[in-house]
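tool=predict chain=A
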Amino acid sequence: MQEYGIGGTEVKGDASEAFAEIPQNRTLFCEKLTGDAPIKPQIVEGLQTIDDVFEHYKPKVDVEFEDSEGVGKEESLSFRGLSDFGMKGITAQSEFLKDLNIEKEQYQKIIKQLKSNKLLRKTLENPDSKADLLGVMYALIKELEEAK
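tool=predict ok
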């Protein structure tokens, strides 16, 4: 039985190949790891693990975030492993994303309160009590800002 490798070339059964076949349950990713185009392509030998590849190329990217007022903030994200590409890995590197995550968690707590707190819901349904509650909140915000 003949086996075929990359490009459809014949691989003899007794030949020792430098590349093993990729199992069907695996995925091969090929991606540019630097922001700069190479002047001259180079072959890098001796990289045995994914950690070796990250250590050699030290991938990083400069990104610009825009807040709700349209103000841009530029940050640099670097990647030292595959886990750095996930939400937690990227958020851990970015002050802007950390602040957004805290804001998201606060909104989720407010939504939970609105769904479960019947007294708060009843207060917000009545226009007079809602205005009183907002007045108290604005007073608290002012007091906190003055305390800074």
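Residues 47 and 118 are 60 Å apart (CA to CA). The longest strand covers residues 60-66.
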